[in-house]
Write a structure and sequence with these properties.
It is found in: Cell outer membrane. It is a multi-pass membrane protein. Belongs to the TonB-dependent receptor family. The protein is mainly β. Helices cover 7% and strands 47% of the residues. Among the domains are: 28 residues, no CATH class; 115 residues, no CATH class. The strands form ten sheets. The protein has a 22-stranded antiparallel barrel. The chain is globular and about 100 Å long. The two termini are 38 Å apart.
């Protein structure tokens, strides 16, 4: 007797009174299908390199931005969550450093078309899958915009089944995911430590005790200002009048709510998918949140056996309230200020007896250290708890994304496709800084308004020919044309001197400070072709060619040609493998090809220059007359930056797919890199954009999947991914080879080294008096270089001191299910690499910044009784904590990014209520992080320097999913 079922292998069993049949999946039919450039491909036949993230994996995560779902989910992909601010995108890098003076972000493609809208506008619940395309065979057909890889997002569509309605609702709590640095919290501890600074400076305990209040400006104790600390450095027994915790006052938990309603279904003639989503994601500081209302409708309609139509329209309105969280010198940066301000300074105002001071409306009055209640030595006239509540920075975005297409089949083997995509983002940003205190007080308050509008049109026409010959030869030819146009409009203005500190509108201000506007346009015209051939389902070949014309270059250099060749061999299909039953699949593949890049930033900015071949001027007012000045020197000789990618990979499935292995080696060489080359001062130019550098990224990546044999109704699998790569600059302009090119304060580009190698001073410890020493090169009489130390920071030599790039990175996950119960854990890790811990360095000053807090490690500073320490003596030296390898720290980490526990109710329980499916679940994101130093989050700093960014948020939610 034969028993068969769709998607399962046919089973032959003997006829008996009782027969138990265990069906096995049909590998051919259930084979993974990936969305690739201008179509789909079976994983086994694909000659390129791609990884897929399923909707199941995405839906487990509590992310307001889809880019964060890639963290640890695909090999070769590095993700940095630079800000925990709800709604913010992650930084995504594919297989190393794509470029230096241009965007290194991948191209995003949504439903077959390049997407320039906001990634945060896409509801993660609407996504069917994400494919990450990594090599030339998979990306070259996208041409010039695919130099840094491609992230292909495919949204859900209808099906030919009865319509189903699904409601998914989840609610939870957001909290701080990363703790503070181990800073001083005790006013007494801070006072006695700063007393030590004064004693070392002034030479006696008496002078230190007498001068303490004068240096710090505050006395939180019920004692005379000159008797806070005795002459031996001990805190007196005076009563502490107040002790406010800045972190607890500034940072608190928020709530998170997310709801999605979908309708999915159709018939043989037409299908439909409708979704409505709402997200309310509160941050952990005041005026910090993100809300999104999203709508999506898509449909497919079969007109007849020759013509099919498809289309989708999506709208999203996002409202993001945020604070100015960036940099270590920004006094309104909550995550900087709350850790830098000394614990002797209160959040709220107190009188001389320690009694709280209240406003007329009964609210607590904030302390600003401005002389009203004391004189702060640090952060005077600043209070982030007050400014977070009073200042506003709101961004409202309206996003529209549409896709329409027609497919016409004719002459049996031909298909014509015409497709159009349109994306539009209207954005309004309103920023207000209160006139009552803080940075804008001297200006009477500041208001900024930005209005931007971006639009992109993509239209392509594709002709596809497919032919099967003799049952073994399969031919697929694609030719096409594509036109892409980008338009951007920008308007900005600013006013000061606000009358009412509660009204941020311009009608409340009298002085126009600034106004500006500009627009950009960018066009790419493309012709493309692809050939896919396979023989007997064993040997596969692919070739692609694309010619792009970019408006970014002068007419003579506008066109670039990019191509790829790829092949794969399904070894397991060979006759000599027929008796090797433990190998289910064994495939070898390789590819080589080129992709281009036409993007370059303006010098010292991250703003794209759409007219880099033209010299550009600015116009200003000079006593009522025009003043014209050159701000960018154009280069008409600029041409395409080209990357040549080699990829070879091996895929194996063993023991009926119990073990699955994917291994790939890649070598990416980028030539004629677009770079803003520094010029000698004598030339009168600061930078000139040139095709100047050559760079390589070489490495390997792997995915290891294990399906553990389990009893009936149980499933358990593990997945491990890993990536290693090395970045190297192999050619720079000849006149720069000796000294290199200064890339930033810390990085110097040199031949044979990485773009993100640190070049700076090496710390040599302390001299016999506890003063800092650094290494320097010196020449002896014969001219030989010798190593010596110096206590003069300006005479130290810069050396290679490490790299910001990790040695290894990847992810690990496990999923377990038993009947209706499901449990999963997802984690990611990084090994090696360095981060310059700017926060820690600033907290290790030697007393030069009176009123700034210290890290607890400062208690181990050198003294006459602690001469083995390598922390400089506390004497107020400005250079004691200056940049050196002393503050480089390992970027290694292990992060549990998600835990999900769910239960799907038996259908027999649900049938009386007309419910088809019901699942309840618990989810936690950013569960735990292990790194080298408490408070330092290596995940935020992909290029090696901590900046007191918005802390990662831990989200814990419960949810319910119902299908009717």
């Amino acid at each position: 007797m034969q028993i068969s079922f769709i998607g399962m292998q046919t089973q032959e069993v003997a006829i008996k009174p009782n027969v138990r049949v265990v069906m096995k999946a049909e590998a051919e039919q259930l084979e993974e299908v990936m969305v690739v450039a201008y179509g789909t491909a079976k994983k086994s036949s694909f000659t390129g390199s791609a990884s897929t993230v399923s909707s199941k994996s995405i839906e487990k995560l509590q992310v307001s931005n889809v880019s964060r779902a890639l963290e640890g989910a695909a090999p070769g992909v590095q993700v940095a969550m630079q800000s925990g601010q709800p709604g913010e995108s992650a930084t995504v890098r594919i297989r190393g450093i794509g470029s230096i003076n241009s965007s290194a972000a991948p191209l995003y493609v949504v439903d077959g078309m390049p997407y320039d809208g906001s990634i945060s506008a896409i509801n993660p619940s609407d996504i069917e899958s994400i494919s990450v395309l990594k090599d030339a065979a998979s990306t070259s057909l996208y041409g010039s915009r695919a130099a840094n890889g491609v992230v292909v997002i495919t949204t859900k569509r209808g099906n030919s089944q009865k319509s189903k309605v699904t409601l998914d609702a989840r609610m939870g709590i957001n909290s701080r995911g990363i703790p503070e640095y181990d800073i001083m919290k005790s006013p007494g501890e801070y006072m006695t430590t700063y007393w030590t600074v004064l004693k070392n400076q002034l030479g006696s305990g008496e002078k230190a005790s007498a001068g303490l209040f004068g240096k710090l400006g505050y006395n939180p104790y019920d004692t005379d200002n000159g008797a806070i600390v005795d002459t031996n450095g001990n805190l007196t027994s005076a009563k502490l009048l107040y002790q406010d915790d800045w972190e607890k006052e500034a940072i608190s938990n928020g709530t998170r709510q997310e709801y999605t309603l979908t309708v999915q279904g159709g018939s043989d003639k037409s299908t439909h998918f409708l979704s409505l989503g709402y997200l309310d994601d509160e941050g952990i500081i005041s005026n910090s949140d993100y809300t999104r209302l999203s709508l999506r409708a898509s449909g497919d309609y079969t007109v007849n056996e020759f013509i099919k139509l498809n289309g989708s329209v999506a709208y999203a309105r996002g409202e993001q309230n945020s604070q100015a969280i960036s940099g270590l010198s920004n006094y309104v940066n909550t995550f900087m200020f709350t850790q830098y301000v000394a614990p002797i300074y209160p959040v709220y105002a107190y009188d001389g007896k320690g009694t709280p001071v209240y406003n007329e409306d009964g609210s607590r009055r904030y302390d600003f250290g401005d002389g009203t209640y004391g004189n702060r030595a640090w952060g005077s006239n600043q209070n982030v708890v007050a400014s977070d509540a009073a200042n506003q920075n709101q961004i409202i975005s309206d996003n529209v994304s549409s896709r329409f297409g027609v497919n016409i089949t004719f002459l049996k083997d031909f298909k014509f496709s015409g497709n159009m995509g349109y994306d539009m983002t209207n954005q309004m940003q309103n920023r207000f800084m209160t006139p009552s205190f803080g940075d804008a007080a001297a200006s009477g308050g500041r208001g900024y308004k930005y209005r931007t509008r971006s639009q992109t049109y993509t239209i392509n026409e594709l002709l596809n020919y497919t032919k099967e010959i003799a049952g073994k030869h399969h031919l697929d030819i694609l030719v096409g044309h594509e036109n892409y146009k980008y338009m951007y409009n920008y308007l900005y203005n600013a006013k000061t001197k606000f009358f009412d500190d509660l009204v941020p509108e311009y009608s409340n201000a009298i002085t126009m400070e600034d106004m500006n506007s500009y627009s950009n346009e960018y066009t790419i015209e493309s012709y493309l072709g692809r050939l896919n051939y396979d023989y007997d389902d064993k040997y596969y070949f692919s070739g692609s060619l694309r010619r792009d014309g970019s408006s970014r270059f002068a007419k003579d250099n506008r066109w670039g040609t990019f191509w790829s060749l790829g092949g794969s061999w399904r070894i397991s299909k060979e006759t000599f493998m027929e008796n090797v039953s433990w190998i289910s699949n064994l495939t070898l593949r390789a590819s080589y090809g080129s992709v281009g890049n036409d993007d370059i930033y303006y010098p010292t900015t991250t703003t794209s220059n759409y007219y880099a071949y033209k010299t550009q001027y600015s116009v200003s007012n000079s006593d009522g007359s025009f003043a014209v000045s050159k701000y960018y020197h154009g280069n008409p000789d600029l041409t395409w930056e080209t990357s040549y990618n080699f990829n070879v990979g091996l895929s194996a499935s063993l023991w009926d797919n119990l073990l699955n292995i994917d291994f790939e080696y890649f070598n990416k060489k980028t030539e004629d890199m677009l770079y803003n080359v520094p010029q000698p001062m004598s030339s009168g130019l600061s930078y000139i954009s040139k095709n100047a550098l050559t760079m390589t990224n070489k490495g390997f990546e792997f995915t290891l999947g294990i399906n553990i044999p389990m009893p009936r109704d149980m499933k358990w699998n593990w997945t491990l991914t890993g990536t290693h790569y090395k970045n190297k600059v192999t050619d720079i302009p000849e006149d720069k080879r000796e000294a290199g090119i200064t890339h930033s304060t810390y990085y110097n580009i040199r031949e044979g080294k990485s773009v993100y190698d640190f070049y700076y001073y090496r710390y040599a410890g302390l001299d016999e008096k506890g003063h800092s020493l650094w290494y320097r090169d010196s020449k002896d009489k014969e001219g030989n270089i010798t190593l010596e130390t110096t206590d003069d920071y300006s005479k130290a030599t810069k050396y290679y001191i490490g790299t910001a790039l990790p040695d290894f990175q990847g992810g690990i996950s496990t999923e377990f299910s038993w009947k209706g119960l499901d449990f999963s854990i997802a984690a990611n890790y990084q090994l090696g690499g360095k981060i310059y811990d700017s926060m820690y360095a600033s907290l290790m000053h030697a007393g030069s910044d009176a009123g700034r807090n210290w890290h607890q490690d400062i208690r181990n500073a050198w003294s006459e009784t602690n001469t083995t320490s390598n922390i400089p003596v506390l004497n107020g030296n400005q250079n004691a904590n200056t940049f050196s390898d002393r503050f480089l720290i390992s970027a290694t980490f292990f992060n549990i990014r998600n835990i999900t526990l769910g239960y799907t109710f038996p259908k027999s329980w649900l049938k009386p209520a007309a419910i088809e499916n019901a699942r309840i679940y618990f989810a936690a994101d950013n569960v735990a992080l292990w790194s080298k130093r408490k408070g330092m989050d290596p995940r935020q700093y992909i290029y090696g320097q901590s900046q007191a960014n918005y802390s990662a948020i831990r989200s814990i939610s419960v949810g319910l999913s119902l299908t009717f």
